[in-house]
Amino acid sequence: MKKLYLYLLTSAIISIVVLSLLIDAFSQQTAPTVDNFSWESTLTNGFAQQVARQPVDQRADFTQRLSRDFNITLTYRKGDTLALPLELKTKMINEGQLLLEEEQGLNLLKTNDALLPDYLELKVEKPAKEQNSDIALTFIFYAGICAFMWFILAPLAKRLSVLTEAAKRFASGDMSARIEVNHFTYIKDVELTFNSMANQIDKLLAENKLMASSLSHDIRTPVACLRFGLDAAIEEPDMQQVRSILSRMENDLDQMENMLSSYLSFATLEQKAHLLNFESTHATPYIVALIEQVQPKISKAELLSSYEVDPELFLTADLHWLARAVTNLLSNACKFASHNIFVKVHELDQYIVIDVEDDGPGIAPNNWHKVFSPFFQEQNHRNRDEKGYGLGLAIVAKVVDWHHGKVSVSQSDTLGGAKFTLSIPCKATRAL
Fold first, then answer.
1. How far is CA 331 from CA 151, 295, 327, in A?
2. S-S: 374 plus which of 14, 158, 238, 394, CB 3.0-4.6 Å?
3. What is the model's pTM?
């Protein structure tokens, strides 16, 4: 918007200057000259000769008598009262006369060698057409400014109408309503912000819809188990069997609690995007600490971990949430790796790149674009420990999005399994 304000201000100043120059040039060409007042000039010339013959101390009184006798406005002026540029003074001395224009009318100044440096001043009225010309020029000036500003503001009004129409469509339920941004718009930032807002809302609604659908689907199994367990416990006479059934029911309740907790955590994740706290840290100890944090899982799965970190590299990010993303990738690798996990951190094209590779079964290429969607799980993958809810990689994608970064999956060239690549700008900025 600052760019728009500067553009409008500059345009207004340029329009005023250009119109002023054009009107001034026209005024000078059409301005009255001494030739338009030949009778007044001849009369004043005669008065100047008569006044010059009078003693200096009587000239003012004599001029007043002439003014009364001829019913004109004639005044005797001292030369030191003439406040004119040197160029005009010289012109009056050389030509013996000068015509000056004021708001009240015109002043004809007359002098001669005997009268110098003093002069006579005769007030004459502007011709009627000259007064009409002034009004016309004033009208043209303001009309020109209005036309110029309309020319500048018309595209702005058009883009605002496009923005209003898109907002109305979006508010009425058309989630696909977007603005096609071009390079000749004054409100490009506003249009991009609207599109970003619409994308965020559309994404949140889709995630909420997917979460509701997944939750209703996933919760059926433990609820059904609870129903069957409750019926079995009521009908079972053996207390030992009842305790066993109740124990299984407790496990089902724990599963439901964990499921609901995971879903609610993911649902409220977006609210934390504006609470990011960016810090800088040395990459090597940071990554080593994260690997050590996941080491119990790595040891439990009897895996080997290794890493390669650029020793000169520094990270700038919200270290808490970046740690959450990296540990999610490491935990995911622990679930599917056969023997090895490898972590590499390096800089590439102004991005800090974190690669997490494993030697597991990998991910089918047709699912590479799906794995970061909430609640997605490949059917052929089996976790070593327990069934997850498909939220770990979705959280990774959100954290990367907050840092204006990128995340992708491919096949590892070195280990043969999955390779997750997390990239964030070297100087990450806060998400909008």
1. 60, 10, 6
2. 394
3. 0.55
